[in-house]
């Protein structure tokens, strides 16, 4: 059996060459991982929500209802794709694809384990932040193309919120960069050998988490999708797998954001006994659990309060934190 | 791919597309978009010269950074002007802006 | 030229009749300037079933099931009010045990109604979890009431001169277990919601209703008391056995959404106190007045009866000609007046606040439409 | 200075209120669930449960004498009873007792007014059907069938 | 077992393919940014083109700048433009038809510019500097920014700050003046 | 404030004589009947004056409704106070399809209440700012609470029909 597998691998390697093969294998791995992760996260979200609310949650399909999301996915795929007549067809169809693409790119640099990032770029952190911005453009596109008041309002709010919260996000990440002295994610993890950065940078960590929650449009910052005001926000008009792609992107984005938080503040793959990958995933899912816990606890902010919160509280505190970090680093050495 | 001339021609073509857009557009935002294209063409030139000719490889990058800074400032100002203009004229067509006098 | 090209930035938004946060079929026609509400025009009547017309076409007894269907969230209170009104008109004296049973059930129903409002209000504000906690508590009440009334929503439990069934042990045990449980829950609600900084920001200072405004629009119930006016029909025009029971009327200060919320939470505690006391004093005896005919008919004349429902002053105006069928039965429902003040509260607020204010008034639309 | 202090106090107290709220939800998460998994588990019906009405079964069949009191009292007018006399001296005895359950509001007034106590609430609650016309039932036929089946 | 495909899919080939793709992005994006009348398409074209430019920056060896390009241009400027469009809602207004002579004139001008500069570029013999440093690191960039180019850096920051404040004031104050005038008229 | 005081006040200010009724039996302390020929000219003004006075005295308008007595309609206004149990009901006779003065300028609550009465009984309130249908559809051409109204199929809903063998 293994001999056969090995032979096939050798043949593939010989035919396609190592570079192409690595690309294809990497891409397939990322895509599969994204799907599995989203399926698991949706299940986790439903379970967490259910237990917080004294319910059981999905339990019928598969053990502990684990396959419920798969079934839901099948349902989504089999649904009709509806394009509203007044919608702008090109952008309407493009938007879900575009929203999904940028969330895949960070997987290029995420350090799951010491040897596991596909390519440990020296500007890895910048890459992640740069492409999270693209996401916003796609949302705006989808909201505008739907030609629906609710969708457009949702999209506009989403973008205003993302732009506002990206600033404290970047600033708090920068204070870690100052401490690690590098934008390379591998270096940042390496710099946390003695102590996790969350110990030195608790304020930045909290700011990052709050900003990340806002960036992923999750409660209490889910204004763009506030169902009591805006029905479903920018994806009001989407159905079937197009909606599914938005969903997938949201959960993948959550994973990416949590991974970055783990890398920046919680020592990345570091941990005793277990191999690095396990520690990394464990920490990421723990953090995601916390984010879900937050979501199912709080009411929603009002939109102007949300912007106020970003500009009045998060950005000044992040700036101050950055300043203090720079000063201390200068004085210490 | 690895010669200066290729990049210079790419930048030139981009610049000319931008120029064409700038001249033929009537809407302010369209012109702003064209200007961004032209600025980027300049940025490509900076980096290409820096890559192939300059003594210190960091200088060109810094210039490009400055270009981006300027572009951001310009976009902010231009957009606020467009918005203000729109509030008064309900149009973003440049030809109607002469109504602003008086 | 310039003037011609000016267009006002106003547009109309239809909130409802099918909107997630109007809770029933209410349509609000909002004129907006940006995200600010300039004018609000509520459009009602989507679930008008003509209860008052039905009243003119059926006997006094036959109308009894209808009372559960106006405000289905506090059906027992309406049931109770109708029976009291007819009994007063006919001069029927209800045995004390029956009256205590009615008050216990009515107060439990009032708590259930407030709990549902609490959950739904937080759902409007984007918090999903308190909704399910509230439903968990409400479920207990429904199960308890189901033990004696046999039904969970449209009880039809009170009869002229008494109640349909006596209390059983399951009911008494259920209530005794429920009271401390809800007390603990209320504490949790205060930690989870009342002190939550996001919730405070969403509700404090929003939708302020002055006492004068409230009187002008005849607003009653918790909405009025949140503005600081001490008016509770149970105290102002005591009926049933309320004069024998010791409870307070919680008051607000500012009349904003938060006060309306808080008054209701405090009222739940007071209702618990009433239930506790009534259970203690529950006398023994018959549950139906002796010698009351199956279908009594009030003597000719006009009668009025005021009752404190979960949402405010419920008024029943009866006109009888001594016959089997009423001449006229007017239901003065509290939500009707409470909704009529909404346009005044909404003017100049943000759309997001519209939801918060609308929710804080605790409207049951079928009650308004009747 | 005062403003700064208030600002900081706002941040801290706000953060504390949020943390306290999260404590509450965490506590609830560790509590047992409150829901019942319906088709598998069922709650016991309350003693007073008001299902659709049925005729009470007595050794000699039902006791309905077709007096029509329920028919007249029913607010929704969904009951129709017809009776016959076997012999001139006998009591009237119901032959048909039709009720349209699709319009019945389960108020129970018919049970209450029945002078013979011939009516009772059933304990059925899974009464969904594909058509509203299936709601029209003859209670006497149902009673006879019931007697045959066991 | 012949290494057929491997012969064609070598790193250089992939690099060439990528370069072609990047060029396609740049020019297709630029054309979309300029030609369609629908202004929303223009912005998305601009974004596409700028992502392509970011790719060119990577080919030119500066990954940092590529990321900055995406972050600032696509993530901020393009979004700001889309925002301005949506706030000013020009979708509801009729798009004025192009004035043909103007288009032809613009085409001619840009073609002339292209040809003249093209000739210039093609016929110049570019001289590389005699001594060349080799540090492409981001750290070096930062050091230079805070030493040799400090003044310029501060100046740019100041310009940006002034621009932002100016933008806010322009948008807000003009709006308020407008609202005031409307009230007067009404 | 006691019913007697209100009675005196009304007598002195408006020259009307409310009747004291048995609160325990009919839930109302004072009842004021304005009848007959006064309706159109005199009572019209009197109701508005009454409402103004009531407002000054701290009453609120509980409800406005009408009762159809076949020969005429009786318009009922109910006022009560927050402070103590004191309810005054004023009954005004109006002919079918007749006019009554609007209180919308005095009590904001009257706006909707009058619209409902118009909707159900067809009494037109003179001076009402927005007298449109409230609960019924805007194009309804009937007044359902009048006693001679019988629902027809086009009014919606179905007719109970139990013709079964």
Structure, explained:
The complex is a heterohexamer of chains A (about 325), B (about 100), C (about 375), D (about 150), E (about 190) and F (about 160). Chain B has about 100 residues and is an all-alpha fold. Chain B has 3 helices and no strands. In chain B, about 75% of the residues lie in helices and about 0% in strands. In chain B, α1 runs antiparallel to α2 and α2 (about 30-50) runs antiparallel to α3. In chain C, β2 and β3 (about 35-45) form a beta hairpin. Chain C has a single domain (about 50-335), classed as Cytochrome-c3 Hydrogenase, chain B (Orthogonal Bundle). Chain C starts with a helix and ends with a helix. Chain C is of the alpha+beta class. Chain C has helices at about 1-5, 50-55, 65, 75-90, 95-125, 130-150, 170-195, 195-205, 210-215, 220-225, 235, 255-280, 335-340, 340-345, 350-360, 365-370; strands at about 10-15, 25-35, 35-45, 160, 160-165, 300-310, 310-320, 330. Chain C is globular and about 65 Å long. By secondary structure, chain D is α+β, with helices and mostly antiparallel strands. Chain D has a domain at about 55-145: Alpha-Beta Plaits (2-Layer Sandwich), CATH 3.30.70.3270. Chain D contains 4 helices and 5 strands; from the N terminus they run αβαββαββα. Among the domains of chain E are: about 1-75, no CATH class; about 135-185. Chain E is extended. With about 190 residues, chain E is mainly α. Chain E starts with a helix and ends with a helix. In chain E, α2 packs antiparallel against α3 (about 40-60) and α3 packs antiparallel against α4 (about 65-90). Chain E has helices spanning about 5-10, 10-35, 40-60, 65-90, 100-125, 140-145, 150-185. Chains in contact: A-C, A-D, A-E, B-C, B-E, C-D, C-F, D-F. At the B-C interface, loops of B face loops of C.
Q: What are the salient characteristics of this protein?
A:
heterohexamer, A: 333 residues, mainly alpha, 2 domains, 71% helix, globular, D: 150 residues, alpha+beta, Alpha-Beta Plaits, 3-stranded antiparallel sheet, two-stranded antiparallel ribbon, 4 helices
Low-confidence stretches of chain F: none
What percent strand of chain F? Answer: 15-25%
Compressed to H and E, one letter per element, the order of chain F equals HEHEHEEEEHE
Structural class of chain F: alpha/beta
* H/E series of chain C: HEEEHHHHHEEHHHHHHEEEHHHH
Distance between the termini of chain C: 53 Å
List the helices and strands and how they pair.
The complex is a heterohexamer of chains A (333), B (102), C (370), D (150), E (186) and F (165).
Chain C: H1 2-5, E1 10-15, E2 27-33, E3 36-43, H2 51-55, H3 64-67, H4 75-90, H5 96-124, H6 129-149, E4 158-159, E5 162-163, H7 169-194, H8 197-203, H9 211-216, H10 222-226, H11 233-236, H12 257-281, E6 301-309, E7 312-320, E8 328-332, H13 334-340, H14 342-346, H15 351-360, H16 365-369
Helix pairs in contact in C: 4-5, 5-6, 5-12, 5-15, 6-7, 7-12
Chain D: H1 2-29, E1 53-55, H2 69-73, E2 79-85, E3 92-100, H3 109-113, E4 119-121, E5 136-138, H4 139-148
Antiparallel strand pairs in D: 1-4, 2-3, 3-5
Chain E: H1 4-8, H2 11-34, H3 39-59, H4 63-88, H5 100-123, H6 138-146, H7 150-185
């Amino acid at each position: 059996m293994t001999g056969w597998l090995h032979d096939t691998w050798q043949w593939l390697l010989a035919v396609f060459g190592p570079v192409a093969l690595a690309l294809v294998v990497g891409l397939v791995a990322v895509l599969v991982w994204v799907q599995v992760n989203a399926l698991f996260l949706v299940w986790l979200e439903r379970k967490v929500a259910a237990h917080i609310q004294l319910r059981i949650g999905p339990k019928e399909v598969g053990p502990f209802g684990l396959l419920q999301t798969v079934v839901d996915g099948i349902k989504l795929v089999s649904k009709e794709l509806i394009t509203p007549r007044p919608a702008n067809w090109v952008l309407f169809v493009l938007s879900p694809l575009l929203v999904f693409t940028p969330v895949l790119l960070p997987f290029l640099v995420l350090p799951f384990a010491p040897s596991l990032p596909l390519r440990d770029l020296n500007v890895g952190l910048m890459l992640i932040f740069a492409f999270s911005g693209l996401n916003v453009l796609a949302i705006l596109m989808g909201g505008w193309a739907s030609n629906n008041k609710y969708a457009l309002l949702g999209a506009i709010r989403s973008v205003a919120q993302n732009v506002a919260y990206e600033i404290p996000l970047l600033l708090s990440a920068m204070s870690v960069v100052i401490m690690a002295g590098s934008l390379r994610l591998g270096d940042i993890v390496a710099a946390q050998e003695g102590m996790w950065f969350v110990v030195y940078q608790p304020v930045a960590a909290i700011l990052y988490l709050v900003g990340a929650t806002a960036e992923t449009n999750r409660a209490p910052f889910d204004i763009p999708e506030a169902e009591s005001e805006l029905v479903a926000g920018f994806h009001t008009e989407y159905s079937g797998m197009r909606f599914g792609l938005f969903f997938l992107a949201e959960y993948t984005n959550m994973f990416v954001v949590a991974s970055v938080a783990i890398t920046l503040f919680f020592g990345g793959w570091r941990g005793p006994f277990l191999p690095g990958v396990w520690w990394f995933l464990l920490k990421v899912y723990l953090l995601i659990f916390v984010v879900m816990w937050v979501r199912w606890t709080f009411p929603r902010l009002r939109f102007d309060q949300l912007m106020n919160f970003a500009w009045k509280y998060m950005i000044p505190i992040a700036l101050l934190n950055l300043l203090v970090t720079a000063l201390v680093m200068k004085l210490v050495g | 791919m690895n010669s200066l001339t290729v990049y210079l021609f790419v930048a030139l073509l981009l610049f000319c597309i931008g120029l064409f857009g700038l001249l033929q557009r009537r809407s302010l935002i369209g012109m702003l978009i064209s200007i961004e294209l032209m600025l980027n063409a300049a940025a490509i030139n900076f980096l290409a010269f820096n890559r192939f000719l300059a003594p210190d490889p960091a200088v060109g990058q810094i210039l490009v950074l400055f270009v981006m800074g300027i572009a951001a400032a310009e976009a902010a100002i231009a957009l606020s002007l467009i918005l203000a203009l729109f509030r008064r004229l309900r149009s973003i067509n440049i030809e109607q802006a002469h109504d602003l006098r008086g | 030229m310039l003037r011609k090209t000016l267009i006002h930035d106003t547009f109309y938004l239809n909130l409802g009749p099918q909107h997630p946060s109007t809770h029933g079929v209410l349509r609000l026609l909002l004129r907006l300037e940006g995200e600010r509400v300039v004018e609000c025009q509520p459009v009602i009547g989507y679930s008008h079933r003509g209860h008052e017309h039905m009243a003119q076409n059926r006997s006094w007894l036959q109308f009894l099931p209808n009372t559960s269907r106006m405000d289905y969230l506090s059906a027992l209170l309406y049931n109770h009010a109708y029976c009291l009104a007819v009994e007063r008109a006919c001069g029927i004296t209800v045995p004390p045990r029956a009256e205590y049973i009615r008050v216990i059930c009515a107060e439990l129903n009032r708590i259930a109604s407030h709990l549902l409002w609490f959950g739904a209000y937080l759902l409007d504000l984007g918090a999903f979890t308190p909704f399910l906690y509230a439903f968990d508590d409400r479920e207990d009440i429904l199960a308890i009431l189901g033990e004696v009334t046999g039904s969970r929503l449209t009880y039809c439990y009170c009869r002229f001169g008494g109640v349909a069934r006596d209390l059983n042990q399951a009911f008494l045990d259920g209530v005794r277990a429920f009271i401390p449980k809800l007390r603990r829950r209320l504490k949790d609600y205060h930690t989870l919601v009342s002190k939550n900084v996001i919730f405070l920001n969403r509700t404090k200072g929003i939708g302020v209703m002055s006492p004068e405004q409230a009187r002008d629009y005849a607003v009653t119930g918790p909405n009025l008391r949140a503005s600081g006016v001490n008016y509770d029909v149970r105290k102002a025009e005591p009926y049933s056995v309320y004069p024998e029971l010791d409870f307070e009327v919680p008051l607000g200060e500012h009349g904003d959404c938060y006060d309306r919320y808080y008054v209701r939470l405090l009222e739940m505690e007071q209702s618990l106190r009433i239930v506790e006391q009534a259970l203690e004093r529950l006398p023994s005896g018959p549950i139906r007045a002796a010698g009351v005919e199956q279908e009594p008919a009030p003597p000719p004349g006009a009668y009025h009866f005021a009752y404190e429902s979960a949402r405010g002053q419920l008024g029943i105006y009866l006109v009888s000609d001594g016959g089997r069928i009423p001449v006229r039965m007017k239901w003065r429902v509290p939500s009707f007046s409470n909704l009529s003040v909404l346009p005044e509260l909404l003017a100049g607020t943000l759309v997001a606040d519209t939801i918060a204010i609308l929710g804080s008034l605790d409207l049951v639309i079928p009650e308004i439409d009747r | 200075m005062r403003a700064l202090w208030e600002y900081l106090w706002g941040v801290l107290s706000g953060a504390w209120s949020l943390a306290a709220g999260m404590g509450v939800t965490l506590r609830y998460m560790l509590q047992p669930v409150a829901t019942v998994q319906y088709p598998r588990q069922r709650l016991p019906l309350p003693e007073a449960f008001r299902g659709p009405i049925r005729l009470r079964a007595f050794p000699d069949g039902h006791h309905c004498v077709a007096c029509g009191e329920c028919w007249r009292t029913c607010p929704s007018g969904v009951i129709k009873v017809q009776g016959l006399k076997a012999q001139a001296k006998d009591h009237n005895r119901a032959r048909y007792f039709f009720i349209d359950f699709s319009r019945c509001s389960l108020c129970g007034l018919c049970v209450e007014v029945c002078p013979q106590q011939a009516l009772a609430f059933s304990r059925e609650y899974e009464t969904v059907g594909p058509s509203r016309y299936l709601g029209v039932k003859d209670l006497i036929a149902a009673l006879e069938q019931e007697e045959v089946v066991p | 077992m012949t290494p057929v495909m491997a012969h064609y899919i070598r790193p250089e080939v992939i690099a060439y393919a990528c370069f072609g793709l990047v060029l396609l992005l740049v020019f297709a994006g630029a054309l979309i940014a300029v030609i369609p009348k629908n202004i929303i398409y223009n912005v998305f074209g601009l974004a596409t083109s700028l992502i392509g430019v970011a790719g060119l920056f990577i080919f030119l060896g500066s990954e940092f700048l590529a990321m900055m390009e995406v972050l600032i241009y696509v993530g901020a400027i393009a979004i700001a433009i889309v925002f301005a469009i949506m706030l000013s809602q020009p979708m509801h207004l009729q798009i004025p038809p192009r004035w043909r002579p103007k288009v032809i004139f613009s085409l001619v001008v840009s073609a002339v510019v292209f040809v003249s500069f093209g000739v210039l570029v093609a016929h110049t013999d570019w001289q590389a500097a005699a001594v060349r440093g080799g540090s492409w690191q981001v750290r070096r960039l930062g050091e230079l920014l805070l030493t040799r180019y400090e003044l310029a850096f501060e100046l740019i920051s100041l310009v940006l700050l002034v621009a932002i404040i100016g933008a806010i004031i322009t948008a807000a104050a003009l709006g308020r003046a407008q609202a005031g005038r409307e009230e007067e008229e009404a | 404030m006691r019913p007697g005081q209100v009675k005196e006040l009304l007598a002195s200010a408006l020259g009307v004589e409310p009747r004291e009724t048995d609160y325990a039996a009919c839930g109302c302390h004072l009842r004021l009947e304005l009848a007959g020929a006064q309706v159109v000219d005199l009572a019209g003004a009197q109701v508005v004056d009454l409402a103004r006075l009531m407002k000054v005295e701290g009453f609120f308008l509980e409800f406005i409704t009408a009762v159809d007595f076949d020969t005429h309609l009786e318009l009922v206004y109910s006022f009560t106070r927050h402070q103590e149990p004191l309810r005054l009901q004023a009954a005004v006779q109006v002919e079918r399809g007749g006019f009554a003065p609007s209180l919308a300028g005095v009590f904001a609550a009257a706006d909707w209440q009058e619209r409902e009465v118009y909707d159900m009984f067809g009494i037109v309130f003179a001076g009402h700012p927005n007298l449109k249908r409230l609960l019924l559809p805007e194009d309804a051409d009937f007044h359902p609470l009048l006693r001679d109204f019988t629902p027809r199929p086009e009014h919606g809903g179905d007719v109970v029909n139990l013709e079964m063998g």
